[in-house]
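Weekly structure sync - notes
Attendees: PM, LS, DV (DV joined late)
Agenda: review two folding runs queued last week.

Item 1: First target. Sequence and structure tokens pasted below for the record.
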Amino acid sequence: MRTAGIDLAAADKNTAACVIDWAGDRTSVRFETDTSDEGLLRICGEVDKVGIDCPFGWPVPFVEAILAHRNREPWPGRGLPAEGFRRRLKFRLTDEHVWRKIKKAPLSVSADKIAVPAMRCALLLDALGSVDRTGVDGRVAEVYPVASLHAWRLPTKGLKKPEDWQHLPERLDMLVERFTELAAGRGRWERRVARDHEFDALVCALTAREVREGRTEGPEPGEAAERAAVEGWIHIPRPR
């Protein structure tokens, strides 16, 4: 099996991509240098499953509200408690699910800077053709490194600032303890993990294998599955 992880940013220089060839004692890790759209699409075509750290869609209530506003129709939030209605516009169903699991919500794709990378993600998904945004089937799945690390009982904070990157080796130590297959060849790829972007891409690639093997939480049948098919769904690994 071969999996990939993409920590997607709006700019190529802040995007990181990791590919893992799973072959027991010969498992190998490599970080890709070409993180352009063309490079990322090539990676997606060469692996069995890709975990992408970026929203696959926008909240359905947000899209409906924007369309109503554009068409000069009544704002859907009329007469509703403002705070509750705005939360529905800010967060997808999967974001709320993540909140319940780890008490931390992903950035809002409709009200935060993550919306810009999401536009790039939408372009990539379009180029890939008919994509299952739930991630259950097909080659790509939406993942969230913080949720994966939480599921594996690993630290989730303290790597976003350059001054924190000095702690990357010890975080890798903890990760390799969970995924012992990575230990043998660690010396060949460890130096490439110089920023949080590469670390997150590695976590995404590890999570992609969990998705492929059916060891993550997909959306429940019914409304959750229907919303996930439009908004995307963050796959959280089951605890190891």
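Item 2: Second target, run right after the first with the same settings.
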Amino acid sequence: MEADAELVVRLQAGDETAFAELVERYHGPLLRLARAFVPSRAVAEEVVQDVWLGVVRGIERFEGRSSLKTWLFRIMVNRARSTGVREHRETPVDLTAAEPAVASGRFTSGGQWARPPAPWADGAEDRIEAKALVGHIAAFLGTLPEAQRRVVLMRDVEGLAPAEVCAILDITEANQRVLLHRGRSRLRCLLEAERGKS
């Protein structure tokens, strides 16, 4: 796959095939992230279409101070926020969360694990089971509070660095860590409960 830097040069030169490659490479990730900001897939599709229009209009001004992926995600976040379809505003750190990040019963009074997380083996049967859990994980992501879901998607699904997530969402490093920890912890609890049923 062509490096993003080379793709940018081609885009800035007006190469239409470069734009098609860019859309093929990033449409899915942009759409997944847009769904964490807007109430429906249709609105998410509109937001992503606005991103592509913004890229066409603004690629010549891209200076490379961030990665192309970060730039695209930042445009998407700005477009999603400016649509005005959000029904409510939220506190980014999710200070209203009633549950702790990890259930207190998981630790002894000395701070040690009372019940450590069970390691997942890497045998063939476990890989088959892991494939089955992918659908559950996608569904569980949808149950996370929006701020946590956004950070988990960016970090664990899209592979963005912490600094990139902070820049895109305009949050602090500490805020990003708290949201990521809480989101991952909630997913782990949901997965453990699901595995306990089988």
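Discussion on item 2: Confidence is low (pLDDT under 50) at residues 84-96.
Action: LS to circulate a short write-up before next sync.
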